[in-house]
Design goal:
By secondary structure, this protein is of the alpha/beta class. The chain is about 35% helix and about 10% strand. Helix 1 packs antiparallel against helix 12 and helix 10 runs parallel beside helix 12. The structure holds pyridoxal-5'-phosphate.
């Protein structure tokens, strides 16, 4: 029998006073109580992968079930549901610097990425190259490949140092045969944040279109799609927006390219006159044309409370706290965890950092298992040795980070992680 891991708080460990003071001065501190309470003592640092449930979500779903579904039945389609994705897209627009009429919720991130990628390539038929990097979330690469294949294009995956976006090499790779530059705004492993304005301008200089995946930045980082002249964007609602598992994605098509880029997956939901049930397709004269089929109304409704809470808290305050949290965490980890074999795998420069931080450790996988099972800290693990710590400013506190570092240090010092398998069994 091994002793349980001490869970803290650890007032004797360095950094405690600073954390307590930072929490006290935190203008967003009250938002933690707006989320459904979880397991006591558990510290959740994976909000960049699946956000926590807002309390308001349960009420919204119950209302929908009782009033809109049970009460109004099919009458709810015209009364409420048909335009819900447009309305929530319009709210998300506030968070991404977009005209509300140019954003809509639809499908999953993978699917909307496919639609916009193929749509962009069909808008540049005389060009044959797509540029991306080797740090993207793999589904983005798979989708880009499949869309490029259908459009007869080749994909060039620009190599990086494993942490930072390879900005200079990307700019060097752009040429007048490039149809599309497609990147994630914040990279899923390292948290590197691209300079959207600079890369968009570089792609436009050669006449290429640009598609940004905002999955790891929306709700955590201020985004100005219009100010950056971005053409196309997609993003996820179940990460920092707390929309719930599998909640639908959003997409943006700028006014400037609206006439050129069309939805290649045409379905009745994107039709100009869906209830005429005409045999021929005519695209709706709005962002609605990027929808395809019936929306998952329950999941869609669940995205609204998290989006509203984010708007109310204010993205600038959220960003300020996010950088406060990540800078505090990096500093403490460098002092306390570096001597135990951890190495920072995220940008040190706050201007180039999203809202999560990766630490590498050669025994990363057993450490993560001990953290979750014994230390009650949930981060996530990305192969081969990245432990990812997501800071969600609406509910992560400085003391959460202090306790987490204390628990991790105790686990590794006591070699408790050696009780766990070092090989990951892959779930299929
Ligand atoms: C989370 C995430 C996805 C998820 O795609 P799904 O279709 O929802 O599974 C895609 N791309 C990026 C960059 C992500 O961060």
């Amino acid at each position: 029998m091994i002793d349980p891991v001490e869970l803290g708080p650890f007032p004797g460990d360095e950094g405690y006073e600073a954390a307590a003071q930072l929490d006290q001065a935190d203008p967003l501190a009250d938002y933690a109580a707006a989320f459904v309470e979880g397991e006591p003592d558990l510290i959740y640092l994976d909000g960049n992968s699946l956000g926590r449930p807002p309390r308001a979500t349960a009420a919204r779903i119950n209302d929908l079930l009782a009033e809109e579904w049970a009460g109004r039945l099919i009458r709810s389609w015209p009364e409420k549901w048909w335009t819900q994705a447009d309305r929530i897209g319009g709210l998300i627009a506030e968070l991404i610097g977009a005209d509300p009429a140019r954003v809509i919720v639809a499908d999953s991130t993978s699917i909307v990425l496919f639609k916009l990628t193929l749509g962009a390539l069909q808008a540049r038929p005389e060009r044959s190259r797509v540029i991306t990097d080797d740090l993207n979330f793999p589904t983005d690469n798979y989708i880009t490949d499949s869309a490029a294949r259908l459009a007869g294009c080749s994909v060039e995956t620009v190599g990086s140092d494993g942490i930072n976006g390879p900005v200079d090499s990307i700019i060097a790779a752009l040429d007048d045969d490039t149809a599309l530059l497609t990147l994630s705004h914040v990279l899923f492993k390292s948290g590197y944040l691209y300079d959207m304005e600079r890369l968009t301008a570089a792609a436009h200089d050669v006449g290429a279109l640009v598609l940004w995946d905002l999955s790891h930045s929306v709700g955590a980082v201020p985004i100005d799609l219009q100010g950056c002249n971005a053409d196309l964007a997609v993003g996820c609602t179940y990460k920092y927006l707390n929309g719930g598992p599998g909640s639908p994605a959003f997409l943006y098509v700028s006014e400037a390219v609206a006439g050129e880029v069309a939805n290649p997956v045409t379905g009745w939901w994107g039709h100009a006159n869906p209830f005429a049930f005409e045999l021929d397709y005519t695209a709706a004269p709005s962002i609605h044309s990027f929808q395809t089929g019936t929306m998952p109304i329950l999941s869609l409704a669940a995205t609204e409370p998290g989006v509203r809470m984010t708007i109310e808290a204010g993205i600038d305050s959220i960003r300020k706290k996010s950088l406060g949290l990540s800078s505090y965490f990096i500093e403490l980890a460098q002092r306390r965890l570096t001597p135990l074999g951890f190495a920072l795998a995220s940008p040190l420069d706050p201007a180039r950092r999203g809202s999560h931080v990766s630490l590498r450790h050669p025994e990363g996988w057993p450490i993560v298992q001990a953290m979750v099972e014994d230390g009650k800290v949930i981060p996530d693990f990305r192969e081969p040795d990245n432990i990812r710590f997501g800071m969600a400013p609406l509910y992560t506190s400085y003391l959460d980070l202090h306790s987490s570092v204390g628990r991790i240090a105790r686990i590794v010092e006591s070699e408790r992680h050696r009780h766990y398998p070092s090989e990951r069994s892959v779930i299929t």
